[in-house]
């Protein structure tokens, strides 16, 4: 049986870059990418995968921006020095036998979601996602595990339930209800994580919440009714797109050592 390691490239690169207090510069970008390359190599050594999918955002607008133009409008753009250094970094990964996948108009999360679910559906073996991104933790419901490279810890079903208060398969609905400030996902006003988890655990998914709590004559019920359209939009925004044309085969993602 094989083992797929899906690496959320920018999740690691940005974290390494922003951990350095120096002002933006070519030198800072070069140093950060040297450290990031070491991180990628440590991931390969630690997990010994048969296949590696390294996903990066392509850049530019995505299908989520087409759906909701204000998506991520508050997020700071990538520092220009780092952005300019990425093509050379991708080339170094390729020289190490690691193929980078970035697809126009979709995010790295969508690439990882598509690849991991396809791998698991085909019964090819284990799937590990190296990322701290909460959106990717829903893949645990399908049998993947998430590895936090920075804390050196595994995230599984029990971890998600303890951290978010819901099962992994309900994580997108939780994020839809509570919104996500980082990504500019609106959610329902005055609904935080605890309220969202309580609703989902009591009723089920978002549709069941709307059919249950959404008909109650309470302030929360009124908000759910009034903001139904926003909630459904939010759910679309937080869900992974899992039918991406990746443009690679499993053979292309296989590591030479296996």
Provide an overview of this structure.
This protein is of the alpha/beta class and 258 residues long. Helix content is 48%, strand content 10%. The chain has 12 helices and 6 strands. It has helices spanning 9-18, 26-47, 63-67, 80-95, 108-121, 157-164, 171-178, 193-203, 206-212, 219-226, 228-238, 250-253, and strands at residues 2-8, 51-55, 100-101, 125-130, 145-148, 153-155. Strands 3-2-1-4-5-6 form a 6-stranded mixed sheet, sandwiched between helices. A hairpin with a 4-residue loop joins β5 (145-148) and β6 (153-155). The termini are close together. The model has no long low-confidence stretch (mean pLDDT 95).
Count of individual beta strands:
6
Fraction of helical residues: 40-55%
User: What is the succession of H and E elements?
Assistant: EHHEHHEHEEEHHHHHHH
Overall SS class: alpha/beta
Q: Which spans of ≥5 residues are poorly predicted at pLDDT below 50? A: none
Write the layout of secondary structure elements.
Blueprint: E1 2-8, H1 9-18, H2 26-47, E2 51-55, H3 63-67, H4 80-95, E3 100-101, H5 108-121, E4 125-130, E5 145-148, E6 153-155, H6 157-164, H7 171-178, H8 193-203, H9 206-212, H10 219-226, H11 228-238, H12 250-253
Parallel strand pairs: 1-2, 1-4, 2-3, 4-5
Antiparallel strand pairs: 5-6
């Amino acid at each position: 049986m094989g083992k797929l390691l899906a690496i959320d490239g920018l999740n690691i690169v940005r974290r390494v870059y922003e951990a350095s207090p120096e002002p933006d510069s070519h030198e800072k970008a070069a140093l950060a990418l040297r450290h990031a390359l070491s991180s990628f190599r440590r991931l390969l050594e630690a997990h010994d995968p048969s296949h590696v999918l390294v996903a990066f955002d392509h850049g530019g607008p995505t299908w989520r921006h087409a759906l909701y133009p204000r998506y991520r409008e508050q997020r700071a753009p990538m520092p220009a020095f780092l952005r300019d250094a990425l093509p050379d970094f991708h080339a170094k990964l390729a020289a190490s036998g690691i193929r980078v996948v970035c697809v126009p108009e979709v995010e790295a999360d969508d690439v990882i979601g598509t690849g991991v679910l396809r791998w698991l559906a085909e019964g090819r073996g284990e799937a590990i996602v190296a990322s701290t991104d909460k959106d990717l933790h829903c893949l645990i419901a399908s049998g993947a595990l998430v590895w936090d490279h920075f804390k050196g810890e595994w995230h599984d079903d029990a971890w998600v339930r303890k951290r978010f208060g819901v099962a992994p398969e309900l994580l997108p609905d939780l994020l839809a209800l509570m919104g996500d400030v980082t990504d500019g996902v609106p959610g329902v006003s005055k609904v935080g994580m605890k309220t969202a988890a309580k609703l989902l655990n009591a009723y089920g998914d978002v549709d069941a919440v709307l059919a249950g709590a959404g008909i109650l004559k309470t302030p929360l019920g009124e908000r759910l009714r009034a903001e139904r359209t926003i909630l459904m939009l939010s759910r679309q925004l937080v869900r992974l797109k899992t039918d991406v044309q990746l443009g690679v085969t499993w053979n292309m993602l296989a590591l030479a050592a296996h």
